[in-house]
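User: Hey, quick favor. My workstation is busy. Could you predict this chain's structure for me?
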Amino acid sequence: MNIRKRLLRSILLAVMLATTAIQGSAQVDSTRVTLPPEGAETDTLLTPMLDDMVIATDSAELKAASLLSADSLPGKRQKRDWSTWRPNPQRALWLAVVLPGAGQIYNRKYWKLPIVYGGFVGCIYALQWNNQMYRDYSQAYLDIVDDDPTTQSYNQFMHLGRRIETANDIKRYSELFKKRKDYYRRYRDLSFFILVGVYALSVIDAYIDASLSDFDISKDLTMRVSPAVINSNSSRNPLKSSALGLQCSLTF
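Assistant: No problem, here it is.
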């Protein structure tokens, strides 16, 4: 009876080993081997094989659990592939509206930033300069046309300590101050409109650049110009029914 029990146990264990080898690591839980209870008789040759099988099963489960936990971490993010990334035109538009130059940064066109900010700095400097000169000449014009002798700020514009005292000088310099006042006021307003134009161009550039980022320019985009014979059926004379011309063809 003992020989039959051992033979039957060996056959069952062999079947279980074959099933485990076929299913692999994906179905490790279904092929877990249960060791015989303590005190039961076991074959001395099969016991090491059972121990190795249990250790391999446990290591496979631990490896699968570690991979699953590593993939399920909430803070882990995959790196963005910038070679396939394309900007959103609407987002680029609103970024450029809120902060000048932000649309160019979002589109990753950093070389445009010196142009954008250089235009803003130049326009702001011209606006402040023309406004200051306009205020100075406006005050000089108001002082020279009034009858108050204590207001003589216009003498600051004279060279080498000269002063405006005679009536002819007052009339001539009042016209000059008025022209200078109007001149700097016009260029102050022009500097402001140019500043608004630079801002609008930065917004338009950010939107168009983002819209054309996925525009496919094929290598077959060509234009060919070749001579051609233009036939006309309006005339019965074969010499007059055709004419030479140029044919233009586009391939896209």
